[in-house]
Every structure is written in C-alpha cells, then in structure tokens.
Amino acid sequence: MHRSEDRASSFAIPAHIVTLFEYRRKSGLMAALSNRLNRHVAALRACHRCPNMVSGPISGGAVISRVILVGQAPGVKEPILGKPFAWTAGKTMFKWFTESLNVDEECFRSTVYMAAVCRCFPGKTGAGGDRVPSKDEVANCSEWLAAEIKLLLPELIIPVGKLAIGQFIQQVPPLTDLIGTKWTLEKFGHRFDIVPLPHPSGASPWHRIEPGKTLTQRALEIIRDHPAWANRV
Ligand code: SF4
Fold this sequence. Notes:
Blueprint: H1 3-11, H2 15-45, E1 67-71, H3 78-81, H4 88-101, H5 105-111, E2 113-116, H6 135-152, E3 156-159, H7 162-165, H8 175-178, E4 183-187, E5 190-194, H9 212-225, H10 227-230
Parallel strand pairs: 1-2, 1-3, 3-5
Antiparallel strand pairs: 4-5
Helix pairs in contact: 2-6, 4-9
The protein binds iron/sulfur cluster.
C-alpha cells in the first residue's frame, strides 16, 4: 500500500459513523418536511377564501408521499365524514386499488397525499347535481396544490376525473385516448408523471363498460409499475 493511501485510510470515517450521520441528516430533513406539511394542512383547513363554497376545506391529512392523488371536489358526505373520497365514489376508487394493486383504503390513505382541485363542497345545482366549481374557485385552490407539489416534489400524480385532469393537461382529449396512458409534465417548477383515472362516480358508467373498463385497468397497472408507487413513503 502507498503511503498516501495509508494516510487516507487512517483518516477514513468508519462506515457505521457515516451511516449514522446520513440517518440523522435524513431524519432531520424528514422532520422539517413533516413540520412544514403539518403547517400547510392546518392553514388549508382554515381557508375561507371562496365565499360561495358550502363546506369548509376537506383534507386527507399531512401524508408525506412521492404520490399525490388529485380529486375534483368533495361531495355532500365528505364534510360530514371529514375526509376526501369518503362515500360512493371513494368506495369504487378504493376497490380499484384494493383489487388491482393490493392496497386497501386504510393503506392508501396513509401512504398517498390526497389533494383536490377544490377542497370545499361547492353545493348542489338546481337540478340536484354537485355544482362545478367556478374558474375563480379553481384558481384560488390551485395555489394550495402548487404549494403541495413544491413541498412534496411528487414523482407521480394521479388526477381523478376530467376537472382534475384539466389542471395538468390544457386540452383534455377524450377519455378513450387518455385513460391508460402516462404523461411526463413540468408544472409549478417541478417535473413529474401523471397517470389519469376516470371519475369513479356512480353517475358515470364510463369506467364500468368497455373500453373504459379495460383502460381503467391499464391505468391502474401503469400506477402499480411506476417506480414511485412501490417507494411512495
Ligand atoms: S375551495 Fe380551496 S381556496 Fe376556496 S375556500 Fe376552499 S380551500 Fe380555500
């Protein structure tokens, strides 16, 4: 062994100390991120920016994840139950993930950050359906989504339904050309993939009949095989 190598090895930091430093550095970064995300969710839950919204904001909680799911807006039941996708559409969506990815509702909620285009229930229309949020409401709430993307730097985003997909793709193509595909995008200063899903609402039969059924299954397989999914937390 040369003298210089001998000197280098005598000053080398033992591997277990390097591992300990790295562990402390990473756990310090995670603690800081957790604090920031907790503060973000607390501020979100206190938001009253849109006067025509019927409920206050619904949040899935401060889940640190490489995967963000973006829904449309809560329905009438979610504010009562206090969580997104808490009723029939949620039952269908969580069934997709349980059956195709072996991830049940509890596991999903604790490992995926659940966002939405609008976090408050917009109320009903005269015809009895849920009111589509206005452009201003969508613009207001997209600031929360932008902050979440900047905080979490997700590698995979799953927008659910056309309104959510429209947050990422300006000209949304027909669902038959869109579901079952993956897009790489840059938005809010960050690059990530999106894999769109159809809205699991009982009002739309698209995902229950062909070709929607097969395309929805294909989209779930793309999510399952995405590197961020297996390492989402
Ligand atoms: S929809 Fe979004 S921006 Fe508007 S009040 Fe609710 S949380 Fe705030």
